[in-house]
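Summary for the lay section of the report: proteins are chains of building blocks that fold into shapes. Here we show the chain for Trehalase family glycosidase and then a coded description of the shape we predicted for it.
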Amino acid sequence: MDRTAELVLRPARRPIAYDPAVEADSLHSGAARVLESNWTGRSTVPSRGLYPHQWSWDSAFIAIGLRHLSPLRAQTELETLLSAQWGDGRIPHIVFNPSVPLDAYFPSPDFWRSSTAGRAAGAPRTVQTSGIVQPPVHALAAWLVHCADPGLSHGRGFLARVYPRLAAWHRYLLHRRDLGGGGLASVVHPWEQGMDNSPCWDAPLARVLPAPARSFRRADLDHGAPEDRPTDLDYGRYVRLATDYRDAGYADDRDRAGRGGPGRGAGSFAVEDPAFNAMLIASEHALARIARELGATGTARHARAERLTTALLERLWDPERGMFLCRDVRGGALVPERSVSGLIPLLLPTLPREITRALVRTVRGPHFSLGTTTRLVPSYDLLGEAFDPHRYWRGPAWFNTAWLLERGLRTHGERATADQLRQSALESAHSSGFAEYVDPYTGEACGTADFSWTAALALDLLHDEPARDSHGVNDFKGGDRG
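The coded shape description reads as follows.
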């Protein structure tokens, strides 16, 4: 059945009244319907129209929600993604479905040329992928999926099979992507960080010469309003960066960040991002738990997570703004833009108390206004010059960042704020038709409807609040616990 008509931008509307006792069953059944309709047999597409392939961090978030419907399907989701891992350890941000026409999505497999351009980096030969990555939330997802049904997990050898791949993924990021030399992983393309169009990228991208508009065709504009999507100029820069990276054989090394002239060469963009690294740290803690479950010790991984937390504080914390900022590795300075990325380190259980207090003040303060003027945390500073409540990652609120922040607030004892955010996320997911993202003030739907991670994370928030305190990130405090 052609579902394209169902996936166009929904008209703006105010959220409907939400009664938790009445609407929980409706939300559960609606979310389950979205995940079922987007299931392909081995993985889940983010949406049938705009995103018709498997995406990396989408699948991690989707698995977290699927565990409440089918732990087996949740395990399969992650296993399918990991089967496309490259020899150097990277998990590609897209795994392409060969049955989808090339013109359905750009950049398509014939742009990335993974099996040829990525041969030296160990790209798989039997499946086509992109050559860049996305945030490393996968080990945390694997641990939570295991906890949903430990008997099934042990019986299938789930953790034993995914652990080596996840460990290789982290080695790649910690060694090949430490482009700044300070211990943190760098992203080499805005799409890798996941918040594709954030104003945090404007300054680092300004030195990138955009690819000519005639050299590519944007398929995203077939499914979303142009005023909600990245501009042609920004998209041209994204294409240039991806082209240069591909033509360099998808090679990574520390001196890439300093090679090449402005706008050219493999090192024209390299950024240390707080959310990307916070998810890496949370997943290091999760890998420690997985190692312990498999009979090994997780002490070294906990210690590594603590070293990364220290590096995050030393390199990205800005005490004046009360939040973490991105670091432009090539320019050598922090990027003075406030985005939701700088709040995501609340996820980390061993942040100093004064840091968590400052982050909570910032979440509630005028730049994000959670609980006062906004229903969900905006993706960008409400007072910033680039703020737009509907344009992709330049202001709208997203459900994956809400999920991460809800866990972080709960981890640090901010239960009232966490409860408020959880309730708003459930209301907005339900009333928006599981929208891709929403207006942070009103919860009005933006982007594609029936979006998979919105449905999946709504399920997790609906069903897992009590359990998150017994096997969630709170468990990662203080050493190698069983």
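Put simply, here is one thing we learned. The CA atoms of residues 146 and 153 lie 6 Å apart.
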